[in-house]
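Archive entry. Fields below.
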Amino acid sequence: MDKPLFGTLPASASDVAAHWDTFYIFLCIISLFFFVLCIGGMVYFSWIYRKGRPGKTSTVSHNTPLEVIWTVIPTILLMIVFGWGWVLYKEMVHAPADSMEVRVLGKQWLWQFQYEDGRVTTGDLFVPVNQPVKLVMSSEDVLHSFFIPDFRVKQDVVPGMFTSVWFEAKEPGMHQVYCTEYCGAAHSGMLAKVYALSEEDWKLWKRGKEIKIPGMEKPIAKSGETKRVSLASAGEKIVKQYCTACHTTDGTKRLAPTFKGIYGSKEELTDGTTVTVDDNYIRESIEAPATKVTKGYSPIMPSFKGQLSEEQISQIIMYIKSLK
Ligand code: CUA
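PREDICTED_STRUCTURE:
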């Protein structure tokens, strides 16, 4: 793990973190420079033109070269800050395509993690090192915010929608997670830990074995039995129960669009606009199906709002995602 660049910053444990730190230091240096220039100038001029000093200041109306300089230079600096911030922001929000996905559920007052193979952990997130991890997050009750200072990633977790962050841990280690959105009495206790595991430890953990993290006294508890239902398989069960009267999963047309290959595709709607089928669109189609109806179909689907848990919605999405 890299040492913090400033004494006040937590360790920087991902590439994104290092990029943010460089940007942060750039901002600090610029701010310091202009602080010294402006405040220093103010103090200097109030001293040399103090009351009682002989001589009189000449009348100055304006100075064109000076005005151009103090307009152009800050403008250029601000554009650099904007452009740099934009590039970093894009890097932060767009997870690489080969990311491992973990579904995160925030609720008063804990964090729950669902892995693709169906494993569920509460308060502890286990990830392999050198592997981008995408967290797709939602809330069961109020606004929360998921923050891992060591990775410099933070994102609001909002009821009724999915948001995401991603990171890639560089070395094995443990990292603190905070909730950074005031969410009620036990907000400050809404904590979790990220355990970045070496390749061997990750394999052991996936097989349900006990592992020991360097620097930690106690070994990490076993991940539970190894027989479990993957998120996609659990989703398949729900889809078979609720959806397949109208939706097919093999590409054939029935009363509603098929689920095969639909995830990530662009669908034309009855009003002529298009929509990308992603997690939030699937959620909307489950909860308010008449809002965006695919062209060529009628709005016959009833709303399932309140009938499916957050976990079940995630399972359905993972199943639809698996139908390539
Ligand atoms: Cu959850 Cu604060």
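CURATOR_NOTE: The longest helix spans residues 15-48.
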